[in-house]
Q: What sequence folds into this?
């Protein structure tokens, strides 16, 4: 992974606050319940979609 992509992932994780278990209200409750899915998307599925979007 490129440093820019790693920075993007880091910023998105910070934005979604997936590491903040104490936030348990509203949308954060949903994010906490789907944390594994969000991390899987950010770390595995996002890069191919980015490459595909920029290749066309």
A:
């Amino acid at each position: 992974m490129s440093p820019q992509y790693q920075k993007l992932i880091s910023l998105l994780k910070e934005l979604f606050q997936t590491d903040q278990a104490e936030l348990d209200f509203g949308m954060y409750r949903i994010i906490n319940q789907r944390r594994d899915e969000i991390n899987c998307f950010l770390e595995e599925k996002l890069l191919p979609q980015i490459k595909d979007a920029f290749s066309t």
Q: What stands out?
A: The radius of gyration is 13 Å. Residues 3-55 form one domain. The longest helix spans residues 35-55.
